[in-house]
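INFO batch 0412 | record 1 of 1 | parsing
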Amino acid sequence: MASRAGHATIDDYIAVHPADVQLQLQQVRRTIQAAAPDATEAISYRIPTFMLHGNLIHFAAFQHHIGLYPGTAAIGAFQDDLQGYRTSKGTIQLPLDRALPLDLIDRIVRFRVDVALRQARADRRS
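INFO prediction complete | emitting tokens
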């Protein structure tokens, strides 16, 4: 895979990957955009990130998978749905040789949006 250093935008990040991976990265991006229309795009930790009252979700391409980083609460909340995927504390590995679970990504992002908005409301009250 191409180096991830120095990308200013998500478009820049996606452009350095092979065409088939670019298509998958764009599918992930569009799914996140649809599920979190008020989120803004950024590069954080040198990977594509969506921000909504802080980091909402990250994603990145690797040699054999796309990493999705929704955080530990989302991994726990969707534990049953993630049975067919390799996961770790806050990461989901989506193999490049399988169809992307776009519905699952959508539900995870909507979960993260709900958490972010609830936390922002709580922060405003304190």
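INFO post-check: Strands lie at 40-44, 47-51, 55-61, 65-69, 86-88, 91-95.
INFO record closed
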